[in-house]
Task: inverse folding
């Protein structure tokens, strides 16, 4: 989640309770490194990523890391070299292939795509392990998580506080990886070395800690980690832990690593079970129950790092009484980490669902008023500058940047309102069944019978069609592949009210419309995009009285225009 502040329900930007140190100017990144999700090289398509064994030594004073990565691949097609992604500003000390050192001429990394020659060609079915030893000052985030990299900060009492946030730029900012959504390793071991008495928190399960010569090495193990979900969290952490008995019968470890405010930490930790239960009841089993539901306090706002979500929301509460950033990031364990978009062009599958889970959770707490109040705040942010989905592969920043033709925050806000509309169109049972099949690949997920998977826009549309027994491509063609919203055009002739859908692309749009006439509701099927209602003498009417539909709203357009004019102008 790149824009957590704008997803919160009315939260304003706060200042993180830490004292950032003054980092040196970040080294320049190549265009290739700066943009996560470029097409994979043929050599990357010819392997499976079986194991990433990562040793990373972090020096908080020098803003320096030393990395030792052992990467194991299965070969699926003839292979002459291994191709990885690593920021060229991290100098390489040595490279080995299956235990044998390569000469400097055996590898090259001119622009952030590291090419390693194999001593001999490999055929399908073989395995190979590449070791890359490197060092340097990793790219520093100017404003995490919007601008990615390392965050070097200090706690309120002056202790080192270090974290990573690399969704936009990618895993290659600090370890050699395949920087593409489909580049996730099957197994990740992290060995994070830090000065004692600092604590280093990673993904998955704690495998122990070694201490010697004033340094501590923390060992973590996780499975099928999303590429940008591999994270480092380093601070003089204190820990809260408990166990949660799931409605599916398994017991999930809960952990929160915080810096200094024990009272507020305990209040936040108390929110974990209710949020877990809601998402398990709405979607299905917590995907990583054998590892943990973990949260680490960070010196930046937040990010969905798998099993160790980053949290820096200053223990805020929204008007519904809970921390909506925490709840949004938790939703990403289902929508983002269990189900990962196959390409960044499908990223709305992460953000629209995670955003929609916020009003859905508010409804579970406060009823319909909370639900619609939450939706209204989200609705006011929709821009409609570009379609949510382009239909072609994209890099991550191509999705987020308006000047590149990307939908930006519409993958959150417009996507969430589209899901609200879809739920009203097909009903709760079909809506949540389709979501479960997208997330788990099955409608009957139970702990142990599913694994992380990739999802696409096409797959989700096909699931909805199959679940409903209807062809709903017309619905998604308008909301996902067109920028403008559908509009209801209402004209009155005497006692006749004529309604007609006007949609971008001029395709079919048989979206039913309710009309309140006096004290009764008339439902129009709008099969051909049109419908008529007879209005009794003197009767008032309201189109879409229960706010089921995402459609053009001139009132909101006037509001957005008013707010845009109030923005400070640059001098």
Result:
């Amino acid at each position: 989640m790149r824009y957590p502040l704008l997803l919160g329900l009315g939260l304003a930007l706060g200042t993180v309770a830490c004292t950032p140190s003054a980092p040196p100017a970040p080294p320049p990144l190549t265009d290739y490194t700066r943009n996560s999700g470029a097409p994979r090289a043929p050599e990357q398509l010819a392997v499976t990523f079986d194991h990433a064994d990562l040793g990373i030594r972090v020096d908080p004073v020098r803003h320096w890391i030393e990395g030792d990565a052992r990467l194991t691949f299965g070969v699926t097609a003839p292979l002459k070299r291994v191709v990885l992604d690593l920021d060229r500003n991290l100098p390489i000390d040595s490279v080995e292939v299956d235990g044998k050192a390569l000469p400097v001429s055996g590898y090259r990394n001119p622009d952030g795509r590291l090419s390693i020659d194999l001593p001999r060609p490999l055929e399908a079915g073989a395995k190979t392990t590449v070791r890359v030893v490197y060092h340097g000052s990793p790219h520093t985030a100017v404003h995490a998580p919007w601008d990615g990299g390392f965050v070097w900060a200090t706690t309120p009492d002056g202790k080192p506080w270090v974290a990573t946030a690399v969704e936009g730029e990618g895993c290659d900012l600090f370890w050699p990886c395949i920087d593409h959504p489909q580049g996730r390793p099957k197994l990740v071991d992290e060995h994070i070395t830090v000065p004692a008495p600092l604590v280093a928190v990673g993904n998955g399960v704690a495998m122990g800690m070694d201490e010697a010569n004033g340094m501590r090495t923390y060992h973590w193990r996780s499975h099928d980690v999303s590429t940008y979900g591999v994270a480092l969290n380093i601070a003089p952490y204190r820990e809260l832990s408990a166990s949660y008995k799931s409605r599916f019968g398994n017991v999930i470890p809960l952990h929160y690593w915080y810096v200094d405010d024990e009272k507020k930490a305990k209040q936040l930790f108390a929110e974990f079970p209710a949020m877990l239960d809601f998402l398990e009841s709405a979607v299905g089993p917590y995907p990583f129950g054998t590892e943990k539901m973990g949260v680490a306090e960070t010196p930046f706002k937040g990010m969905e790092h798998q099993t160790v979500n980053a949290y820096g929301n200053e223990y805020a509460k929204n008007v519904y009484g809970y921390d909506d950033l925490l709840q949004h990031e938790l939703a990403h364990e289902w929508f983002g980490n269990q189900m990962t978009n196959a390409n960044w062009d499908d990223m709305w599958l992460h953000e629209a669902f995670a955003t929609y889970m916020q009003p859905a959770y508010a409804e579970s707490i406060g009823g319909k008023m909370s639900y619609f109040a939450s939706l209204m705040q989200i609705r006011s942010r929709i821009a409609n500058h570009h379609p949510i989905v382009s239909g072609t592969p994209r890099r991550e920043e191509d999705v987020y940047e308006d000047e590149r033709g990307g939908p930006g925050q519409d993958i959150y806000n417009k996507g969430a309102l589209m899901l609200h509309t879809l739920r009203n169109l097909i009903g709760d049972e079909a809506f949540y069944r389709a979501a479960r099949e997208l997330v788990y690949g099955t409608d009957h997920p139970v702990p142990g019978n599913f694994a992380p998977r990739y999802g696409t826009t096409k797959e989700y549309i096909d699931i909805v069609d199959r679940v409903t027994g209807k062809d709903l491509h017309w619905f998604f063609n308008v909301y996902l592949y067109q920028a403008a919203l559908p509009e209801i055009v209402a004209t009155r002739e005497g006692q006749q009210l004529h309604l007609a859908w006007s949609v971008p692309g001029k395709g079919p749009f048989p979206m039913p419309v309710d009309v309140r006439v006096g004290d009764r509701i008339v439902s129009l099927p709008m099969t051909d995009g049109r419908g008529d209602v007879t209005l009794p003498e003197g009767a008032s009417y309201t189109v879409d009285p229960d706010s089921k539909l995402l459609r053009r709203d001139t009132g909101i357009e006037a509001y957005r225009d008013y707010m845009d004019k109030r923005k400070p102008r640059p001098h």
